[in-house]
Amino acid sequence: AQKITQTQPGMFVQEKEAVTLDCTYDTSDPSYGLFWYKQPSSGEMIFLIYQGSYDQQNATEGRYSLNFQKARKSANLVISASQLGDSAMYFCAMREGGSNDYKLSFGAGTTVTVRA
Amino acid sequence: DSGVTQTPKHLITATGQRVTLRCSPRSGDLSVYWYQQSLDQGLQFLIQYYNGEERAKGNILERFSAQQFPDLHSELNLSSLELGDSALYFCASSVGDQSPFHEQYFGPGTRLTVT
Q1: Cα–Cα dist A93/A97, whole Å
Q2: Mean pLDDT across the stretch A36-58?
Q3: pLDDT at residue B96 above 80?
Q4: Does the pLDDT of residue B1 top 90, yes or no?
Q5: Would you call B21 helix, strand, or coil by DSSP?
Q6: CB B62 within 8 A of CB B78
C-alpha cells in the first residue's frame, strides 16, 4: 500500500499568493515523522519542514507551514507569499518509528510553477 | 548547502561496467542512507548504514552493494550496469538511526547515465 499520497501532479500559483500542497499518509505506527522536501530543477533535495506525530502544534519555518491533521492523516504544506524561486518539485515523506530502518518513504511529488 | 557531499556529480558509463559513488555525511551524523530516483520508480530507498554497520536494505539489487568506512564516508558500488540503472542517486545523512523524528539531509546527488 502506498504510504504517502500526493494527488496533485502539478500546480500553478501567482507570485505573492499562497499555495497548499496536499499530502496524506498511511501508517498504524503511533510514532512517525512527516517531512517536506523541495527539489528544484538543479536536482538537489532540500529539507523544508518537519512535523512529529506527537507534536501538538503545526510546524512553521519561515514562509513554510505544515497543516497537520492527525485524525485525517494529512500533512499539507502551505507556502505563503510565493516567489519565483519556489518553482520546483515538492515531496512529502514519512519515517515510521516502528520500522527497522527509519527510511523515508516518499510521495510521487507535486510540481509547483510560480507565475510572475 | 546541506553539508552532505557526493562525488562525482555526473557519471556516464556503458552497460556492463562497474562504478562507485561516494558520499560524506554531515559532520556528526552517523547514519547514511542511499536512495535512487528514477522517472518510473520515483524515490526509492536502497540501503542504510549506521556507524559502519548495515542497518537495513530496501529495494537494492544484488548487483549493488555499499559500505560505510570508519571515517563514516560511504560508497555505493553498482556493477554489471544496465540501461535501467540510469538514475539520480542520493546519499542522505541523519544524526542517529533510532528515531523517526530526525530529518535526513540530502547530498546533491550523482546523476548516472548508462549508455
Answers
A1: 13
A2: 94
A3: no
A4: no
A5: strand
A6: no
Residue A8 above 80 pLDDT?
Answer: yes
Q: What is the DSSP string of A30-65?
A: S-EEEEEEEE-TT---EEEEEEETT-SS--EETTEE
**Residue B19 has which C-alpha cell?**
562504478
Which positions in chain B touch A43 (Cβ < 8 Å)? 88, 108-109, 111
Is A103–B103 a contact, with Cβ atoms under 8 angstroms apart?
Answer: no
pLDDT on residue B39: 86
The pLDDT, as a whole number, for residue B40 is 85
Assigned C-alpha cell, B108: 546533491
Amino acid (1-letter code) at residue A2? Q
Q: Is A11 on the interface with B (CB under 8 A)?
A: no
**Is B35 touching A (CB cutoff 8 A)?**
yes
* β-strands B110-114, B105-106 pairing: unpaired
